Amino acid sequence: MPWQEDARLAGWLHDLGKYGELFQRRLQGLEHGLDHWSVGAWIALRDFRSTLAAVCIQGHHIGLQQGGKSAFLSMSPDRLVTGHPLRLQWTGAADELKAKLEEDLGLPDLHAFRKIGALVGPGLMLEARLLFSALSDADFLDTEAHFQGDTSGKRFRHPGPLLEPDRALRLVLEHIAGLARETHASEGMRAVREILLRDVLVSAERDPGLFTFTAPTGSGKTWAMLAFALAHARRHGLQRVVLAVPYLSILEQTAKVYRDVLAPVFGEEYLLEHHSLAGMAEDRQGDPEKERLRRLHSENWDAPMVLTTNVQLLESLFSNRPSACRKLHRLEKSVILFDEAQTLPLGLALPTLAGLSQLASKAKCSIVFATATQPAYHSLSAQVLGVGGLEWRPIEAVASSDALFRRCRRVTPSWELAQGPWELGRLVEEIRGHAQVLCIVNLKRHALELTRSLRGEPGLFHLSTNLCPAHRRSVLERIRARLRAGERCRLVATQCVEAGVDLDFPVVFRALGPLESIAQAAGRCNREGRLETGRLRVFELVDGAYPDDSYHQAAAAARGLLVERRWSLDLDSPEIYEAYYRRLFNLARPEARSPELAEAIAAGDFVEVAKQYRLIRQDTINVLVPYQGAVPEYEALLDLEESPGIKVEWMRKAQMLAVACFRPASRHPAWGVLKPARMSFKRLESDEWFLLNDVPGWSYDEDTGLSLPDKQGALPVMIA
């Protein structure tokens, strides 16, 4: 790393203030409210001109602050003494200790450091976060070792296992070969999966950098991605594979299939899941020690394979807090896979691409954007460069991508909206005409109305995020069983079934939406290619409402392309998505979406960047629901809430029985059926976790999940 000397200096100086007389009195309980970090930051800046070390030392307890030139002047003790909320430890101890360190350890001279100056823009801010990550992690680990120590001194935890990419790749390739023998897929689909695997193993020999991975739905992308990552790591000596996905449903499904193959050989610690539902299976198996170790390794991603969410990874890359940033240095020499890459919010596209291009360059890692509907981010390369990053010029890892899409034609789309919008009653009758059918609508309100209109029909199911995760998992298992058995199965759902949910219906209805969503819906139709062709029918409701403005703009871009192409789009042509995304970028103008974030990056304002970079901005609450499939777990959670009150462990367990919903306005009728959970700390009431009051008519429906009252009768809880 170019900042190796800065990192060493930060390690030496970060706790310099602890050697002052005031801090010794603090250890004796005679002082409190002391700032022990600013003195080391000032020495790093004054004597070594290391702005990187200075900012990281300053922030290792309070978070990264400011990287502009004026911020460095404010580190001067003369300026800090006035108005500083904590007492400082200046005196002569700083210079004395610096002299002792120089004598004992041989501090580097001034010429060892690059003359960086202000830490502004995505590149230098990333360098600061990577150094900050290493410093924070070392500090946390040292503290942990102290408290785990014994009479022999500190006890550091054992590091996580090594990747061993050659051995892991052999296991993965053997498993892929086994799947090819056992699968029910058609000969054509097996051939597609073979070609995809061949292509990516060849591309894995390329130098580390930026890649796209464009492959049709159902082509074996999940395993081919891992094969690419392991082969790439083997070729270039990379140390870690990180997979980031947008949805927990995909993450849990992927983690299970990877773990089933790798854990029996490498052990449970080989693959680390880092997300809100991680550890639930371990809890049910009653192994608290294994879960404790998983949580410790999650704090700094000390594992060769990490499966996490886009929110966790990307927001950490733009964070300023020690706890969020301490894992970032683990990304050095990694293969970072982003599955379903099309889900990146347009408003964050430019800073994200700029940050990731810098990460690939500075951390010597590879970034892979995998999806069946590859966004035309390369068309934004000039804007990315303007943000202060490097050009976004990825290499396609799937050389036969166009041919694979042509070979994967499993669905014939019909664009029903060309004939005008449908009333809801027309859609109900169309669904009734099929024994096995999936209908995906844009709003929970529409899904609820459809389900109520079809109630009583055999094999009817409803899926939305109004159902808690445990309930959704159970419903999906029942649906798959009925589909395999050839029984009646009619599923009404929101977008929650589109990405990463393995379903195979002969007929799919999809309300007009973003083109990538329509393509995802097509991926749930004739998925295994057992039919000559599946049928995708794209319609528009008279009540053509959309979840939000961004979704509406994307749907408008899809409609505009349909009109331009005379109501005929080939969903198996990557060229269609290139044209669609260019149209969407022109319509939505991502370069103008986040001016506050762009200004903060240009100014080197770490605090404001962390505040502005949010993948999920809505204020949400969690409602514990009485799902009948998990009554013992629900009652146990109620007992714990009653006494001693909820803690972090309670919240983690409650995730499987919780529905997330937008926070209602202060006088909203929904508050009449919600009561805040009681915290264990001083018996306070939670502002984020709620239980259902026993109010007649408002509870949790075993078909449609949670509904809450509003002026019209039901509050659509949360957009899927």
Reconstruct the topology from this structure.
Blueprint: H1 4-13, H2 21-27, E1 34-35, H3 38-48, H4 51-62, H5 69-73, H6 77-81, E2 87-88, H7 93-105, H8 121-147, H9 165-182, H10 187-203, E3 210-214, H11 221-236, E4 240-245, H12 248-266, E5 271-274, H13 280-284, H14 288-300, E6 305-309, H15 310-317, H16 322-325, E7 334-339, H17 349-362, E8 366-371, H18 381-387, E9 395-396, H19 401-407, E10 411-415, H20 424-432, E11 436-440, H21 444-454, E12 460-463, H22 469-485, E13 489-493, E14 507-511, H23 515-522, E15 534-539, H24 549-564, H25 574-588, H26 595-603, H27 606-612, E16 620-624, H28 631-642, H29 648-654, E17 658-662, E18 674-678, E19 685-692, E20 700-701, E21 705-706
Helix pairs in contact: 1-4, 1-8, 3-4, 4-8, 8-17, 9-11, 10-11, 17-18, 20-21, 24-25, 26-27
